[in-house]
Specification:
homodimer; 295 residues; mainly alpha; Farnesyl Diphosphate Synthase; 2 strands; 71% helix
Chain lengths: 295, 295
Amino acid sequence: MSDLTQSMRDVADRVYRQLDELLRPVEGPRGRVIDAMRYACLAGGKRLRPYLVMSSANLFDVKQKNALRVAATIEMIHCYSLIHDDLPAMDDSDMRRGRPSTHNEFDEATAILAGDGLLTEAFAVLADGATHDDATIRARLVLTLANAAGIGGMVGGQMIDISGDRSNLDLAGISELQRLKTGALIKFSCIAGAILASADDTAFAALNNYADDLGLAFQVVDDLLDAEGTAEEIGKPIGQDADRDKATFVKLLGRDGARNKARELADSACARLDLFGDKAEPLRQVAQFVVDRRS
Amino acid sequence: MSDLTQSMRDVADRVYRQLDELLRPVEGPRGRVIDAMRYACLAGGKRLRPYLVMSSANLFDVKQKNALRVAATIEMIHCYSLIHDDLPAMDDSDMRRGRPSTHNEFDEATAILAGDGLLTEAFAVLADGATHDDATIRARLVLTLANAAGIGGMVGGQMIDISGDRSNLDLAGISELQRLKTGALIKFSCIAGAILASADDTAFAALNNYADDLGLAFQVVDDLLDAEGTAEEIGKPIGQDADRDKATFVKLLGRDGARNKARELADSACARLDLFGDKAEPLRQVAQFVVDRRS
């Protein structure tokens, strides 16, 4: 197992335990929504976003326990978005990560509430004094995450994605869609450490640039995997994007073009981190991992 | 027009303008989700929760512009909950406030996203420096609202409400359901002014007790209106609760019993405010209004 794989597994384990602790089961009918939140959040997955949070925190003098709480919140937000995106009225996906999607395992109403619950809980965790002693940092985390997740970020991107116009998007349009729908949360993950450390503008700029390249590379590879992958490998039905005549990076650039684009972006992402020296090695490895991954 | 009616209209107008300013329309396909958020938020309604925020702020030396932002966020959260509660998978309500509900006017996917967007935006507004200079207060507002809206509050209450068990609830059970589903947001509204003012524990205790009585009175009257009202008056189909064999305060106490209970609670709520003297008159008027309202 590579260092990166081992290190990602370690973070995934710690994030699992943190989420398990934050989302405790309760008795009675209210417990059902928490069970659904746990089902969606404790299912595994690569935990890429939490790994980015922990790796960006490691560039600075940030307490691990603080970073871990932020890592858990970004996963809550990511999982809420998957629950709602999978709903029949949205992408109508029966499967997620090789298991029934949340509305399929529970029911639609419970899945809607579980997503609402995760979104809300994420902000409660960030605003809690346990996340950082300094309330200015807690408020900044809340504001930055809300902007990344909201209408100027993920929700806005999903709106564009489900609108009928995607088949007409050009490269600029699909890059903008990606920047909102998946890029914004990746960017939050990359700068979370800098927020926790009250880092200077130079550090923020470097991490923002890294995140832009990484997020775009991630989406290009997602499109490649959708075009090339097998359902078994990626745990969800494949070819969905092509079936619906959606514009993708593969359609616009071809497979080789998309593959080259992803590699260029990963190289560019790594170069953004020069000022951090060796401390940024985990983030550089993530950029290569994102391009080389098979699922 | 009574003083209270005039005063509630004034607040409603200001909240409308604040929401209009916070939720600006945008061009392009992303604009659709914002249009849906505006449709749900700018539709009118009594704006009871914002009025409670402004009235609790007026007990203390709180800047009007700060209180108004908080008033707008509680309305965003309230409207998000109405959008999601009305969805076909939840209460399946075609109408809301005498107009098509949001999923009926737009579509289900847009309605889900509009709810998600309002929930997220509310936390962005609270965490923004424009809401208060002191980040400790902003973080406390976020934490308190998230706890009120989440699994230990509104989301938890809605989960109980849609579970099959409601027909078996006794008075304690239905009071607990109300405390979570509607009471928690009313409580946040009542203590928001105290949070903005960093008030002392005595003030918080008084407002918490007032909110407990008021919230319960509000729900008892809601059940009465559902049993007695006309669809035209309350702007949604009536008799829904009875049709579904749900336990309500009217079923458990009878109409006269429920009416007496609501009056007792309103009197008790008013008595909780003695320490604030005349400044609390608007909050006392609200308690009477909640009991006397016909819609």
